[in-house]
């Protein structure tokens, strides 16, 4: 099994993906990438699942997928996030993920997207802190009482 791609390489892969697209999708992916980094300077870029840009902090925050007619930002724990601006417009029926489909010509609400990114990071860090504070269950003894 292959290990994770180093962060520098992942960022280079994302740069190459943006340049390779060379159209509105590349520009849109570059824009949302910049917004993600403005929202949280500690975001780590990863390259997973045979070519998907992934943005993480304390766990996956979102992906930046590109398709023929859409740039899709899938939030790994989106169903648990408040979305007062109504950015989520895809994958609304699931119990875990939510997505934002950005079509050619769509305007990205930068302030609302930053809020959503920050909320996703806060959720990841909160869940991580809760997991650390839980005591680990004790292992059952294999000794028999006679």
Structural class: alpha+beta
Q: Which regions contain 5 or more consecutive residues with pLDDT less than 50?
A: none
Secondary-structure element string: HHEEEEEH
Please compute the radius of gyration using only Cα atoms: 18 Å
The share of residues in helices is: 25-40%
Largest sheet: 5 strands, antiparallel
**CATH class value:** Alpha Beta
CATH architecture: Alpha-Beta Complex
Mean pLDDT: 89
**Would you give the CATH topology?**
Aspartate Aminotransferase, domain 1
Query: What is the total domain count?
Result: 1
The share of residues in extended strands comes to 15-25%
For the secondary structure, the number of strands is 5
Q: What is the terminal separation in angstroms?
A: 46 Å
Number of helices: 3
Net shape: globular
How do the strands line up in the largest sheet? Answer: 1-2-3-4-5
Task: Describe how the helices and strands are arranged.
Blueprint: H1 7-21, H2 24-39, E1 44-48, E2 52-56, E3 60-66, E4 71-75, E5 98-102, H3 110-133
Helix pairs in contact: 1-2, 2-3
Protein traits:
146 residues; single chain; Aspartate Aminotransferase, domain 1; 3 helices; alpha+beta
Describe the protein in words.
With 146 residues, the chain is an alpha+beta fold. It has one domain (7-126): Aspartate Aminotransferase, domain 1 (Alpha-Beta Complex). The protein has helices at 7-21, 24-39, 110-133; strands at 44-48, 52-56, 60-66, 71-75, 98-102. The chain has a five-stranded antiparallel β-sheet with strand order 1-2-3-4-5. A hairpin with a 3-residue loop joins strand 1 and strand 2 (52-56). Helix 1 (7-21) runs antiparallel to helix 2. The chain is globular and about 60 Å long.
